[in-house]
Design the sequence.
DNA sequence: AATAATATTTGAAACGTTTCAATAAATTGA
DNA sequence: TCAATTTATTGAAACGTTTCAAATATTATT
């Protein structure tokens, strides 16, 4: 059955479509008796206006920011999202979130969809695809949509601003903390091979402890658990510097399963300071990333660029990561 | 500056708007040289088609599902999102996520924005606002947008389908597990007062143990931590049934701070089975919710309704929750 | 070179609304 | 009752696209 339109209502009510539209928009120019008749017809015809057709020039557009994250299923990104959302709301912007789930083609796709949905600005936590330099970013530039990268190479796209943290420094501090505690046999459980953050953190670890053993674990609980079980089998070490807290927690679990105690036998440092880190049986020593602040700043920059008329210069903001010492590390 | 339209592109490229439209829609009737010229003009003019105007029968719109969650910063919802996204992608739908952050006005707002962005269907995890019966839901019905509620009263909105789990049963099972282990002094750390899930779970606890003490904690790590510290001060109990895993973890931390051991002195059961639950120092006994499956089913229903022409009847799907016994509970 | 076949482009109608100047109807004041 | 006001309604233009039959250009065949 054909969908009922404003025209059907008008005809049935013996009235013009202009009048029906007036009723629809609650304009007070309609006589009560007419309004009632129209409303009754609308009801009996089960009429529903087609939202898309109502949108016209001059009708108030929603101000929206898009946010594409690599992995929505990760407390680290959750905090970034919350921070971005808070800041956006302050400026009366809404936040539309999409996740690429670590798949590059989905990242490209997400950007395309958000652009089609008419966002005013974009925050993206990009996957690093060497070689495939970013046709979707060029798209954004072409469409004049300001965008801000969270964790990304600044040289990547000239017009993009970047908000990031000093990973190298954070990892350096964490490693120094272990060295100062007398540890000499260090293992670094690194993250995904192509992660920008991971390589920066590895660099920090190596600057402090050039002899540290590097093992590529990954970014999840399971990755940490498996890495210790498989890759560190029979290997002697007294301290672990982990890519992030999840890996640290996974590693800790595996050590316990092997009958080793943290921090008595092995000290562990994480990275991120996710909420649960301080609630663990052995509260985790970790490098705190100001996650909300990153989201907040990224949104602030995007909105500022939306409002500014001239081409704003791209910025690079580097926030500090701070070592938080809890109970998972101990003097040797 | 006026927004560029297809007309501007056509004029600039010396071609009809029909041709530009053909280029836009990748119809292969356009000569290569023409296509290239048009694309170049589009680029130089920063042209973006207005999505709303494309909404016509048979036109190639982006197929999108909106998803509004109460709290993006919660591993429970994260899993639901991932499940919904997986299913959506199977059917070539994209998922736009917004979070109400537990604020009712934001939920209403999020729905409005998503509708304005022309989504095809909506999945919502609604806040329970008694009395304010859902003008935004009526809006959805008015716009003929199928929507599915995750965790919600089915009577709430007649046309909505609901995907939920059997909370009462899950909580009952968890409580029985403790009773069978010989516990008699039970405390139930309930969730937020207005939460549907929380009251269903409380009902399950009380059915198994009518004498259980009920304390309203909340839904976060901190809530669990504080509830045990403040509301259970000096209170004697040997087992805790918690609203969710986060509360359980928070409670466990506080007990440890008080020198109590889990499960030796106190047994604890959580709810949800978030990822980290099995990696804790004391792996958590909990009631597993098929979170991804919930998201998956919700998306599947929404998409089915989008595709079906006639008014589809609303459905109510109740998934089972399963008790997973780990180490945080013990015979007394 | 003429015709037929095919490929490309055009132009106008359609989509379902809102807007607003013009008109019609109702009300007021005398 | 008549004009002057005020209030209510109309009808057509606009919004930015897609669609599709018709017109035109190109290529192939003879």
Sequence:
């Amino acid at each position: 059955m054909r969908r009922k339109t404003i025209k059907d209502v008008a005809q049935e009510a013996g009235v013009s479509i202009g009048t029906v539209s007036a009723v629809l928009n609650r304009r007070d120019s309609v006589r009560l008796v007419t309004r009632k008749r129209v409303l009754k017809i609308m009801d009996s015809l089960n009429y529903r206006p087609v939202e898309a057709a109502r949108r016209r020039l001059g009708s108030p557009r929603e101000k929206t920011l898009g946010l594409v994250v690599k992995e929505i299923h990760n407390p680290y990104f959750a905090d970034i999202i919350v921070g971005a959302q808070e800041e956006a709301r302050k400026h009366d912007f809404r936040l539309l979130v999409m996740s690429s789930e670590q798949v590059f083609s989905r990242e490209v796709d997400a950007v395309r969809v958000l652009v089609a949905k008419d966002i005013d600005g974009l925050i993206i936590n990009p996957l690093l695809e060497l070689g495939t330099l970013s046709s979707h970013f060029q798209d954004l530039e072409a469409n004049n949509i300001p965008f801000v990268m969270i964790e990304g190479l600044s040289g990547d796209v000239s017009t993009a601003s970047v908000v990031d943290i000093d990973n190298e420094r954070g990892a350096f501090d964490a490693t120094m903390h272990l060295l100062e505690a007398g540890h000499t046999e260090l293992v670094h459980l690194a993250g995904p091979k192509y992660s920008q953050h991971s390589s920066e953190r590895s660099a920090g670890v190596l600057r402090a402890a050039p002899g540290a053993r590097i093992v590529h674990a990954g970014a999840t609980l399971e990755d940490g658990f498996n890495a210790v079980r498989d890759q560190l089998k029979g290997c002697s070490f007294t301290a672990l510097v982990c890519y992030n807290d999840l890996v640290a927690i996974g590693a800790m679990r595996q050590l316990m399963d092997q009958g080793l105690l943290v921090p008595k036998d092995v000290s562990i440092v994480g990275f991120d300071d996710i909420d649960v880190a301080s609630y663990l049986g052995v509260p985790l020593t970790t490098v705190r990333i100001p996650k909300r602040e990153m989201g907040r700043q990224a949104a602030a920059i995007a909105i500022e660029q939306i409002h500014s008329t001239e081409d704003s210069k791209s910025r690079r903001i580097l926030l500090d990561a701070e070592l938080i010492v809890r109970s998972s590390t101990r003097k040797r």
User: Anything to note?
Assistant: The radius of gyration of chain B is 26 Å. Residues 3, 5-7, 17-18, 21-22, 24-25, 49-50, 52-60 of chain B lie near DNA strand D (CB under 10 Å from a C1'). Confidence is low (pLDDT under 50) at residues 56-60 of chain B.
